[in-house]
Amino acid sequence: MLGSLSMEREEQLTLCSRLEDLVLVTPWVDRVVADLGLPVNQRFIIDLCLEESISNVVRHGLANDCNHSVVVRSILHEADGAQELHFVIEDDAPHFNPLAAPVAQIKAAPASIEEIAEGGRGIGLLRKYAGTLRYEALPAGNRLTIGFTLGSLS
Amino acid sequence: MNISVEEMDGGITRVVLDGRLDIAGAAEVDLKMNIIAGSAKLLLIDLKDVAFLGSMGLRSIVVPAKNVNRRGGKTALFAPQPMVEEVIKASNIDQIIPIYHDLDAAVQALR
Q1: B69 CB near a chain A CB, below 8 Å?
Q2: Which chain B residues contact residue A108 at CB under 8 A?
Q3: Of the residues A1, A147, A153, B68, which has the fewest C-beta atoms closer than 10 A?
Q4: Containing domain of residue B16, as a range?
Q5: Structure confidence by residue, pLDDT tens digits, A10-31
Q6: Residue of B59, B82, B83 lying closest to A118 (CB–CB)
């Protein structure tokens, strides 16, 4: 009888806490998923969730201060033919739980263009499109884990 | 992120965006978009070559559209790719800034 096969692959990206460094994320994800054959939609959603979560930390948690770092780890877990990809984002910003934060209310039927908010959609998009989200308050910072079951949109 | 502008018949200003409307892309086009929106009356934002759109990219669409609207004009979106369109619809922006996949229909709606 064969035992179950499992494998884990981990990679890491360290960003200086400034918005300009976000341009490093997409090429890094390209390398992480290069051999996974992800559908275009799932690749888009990964980029969306990482941009919204990391930019939120950089802009609001760390005030675009490059003396701080944001560390992003990818963990690909394969077991019995199933793949899960997690991105773990750690920072040393004041505690902020994006799962509990209020999000801008999106009007189902805005009456006019003036009712459409100019910003504040990032956390809402993150919550909508991430497969799984887990937040942990660290002794001096935050850890957000975003998970995706590969081959699925969520 | 590339941006080009075409003046169409009927006073329609067509802004063609090409690339990723992420944070970096939004920063690249925001100033030019707002300058265009400061004079355009009928604005058609062509999204067919936009491969990515995040929340900052949404802002790059909403702010100029508001500027055009405040001067009595109209804005429409043209030919977004499926995931770009989904993000726009998830924010209900399409309820007020309509999406068209047919250019003639977009032109007719703006006139």
Answers
A1: yes
A2: 92
A3: A1
A4: 2-110
A5: 999 999 999 999 999 999 999 9
A6: B59
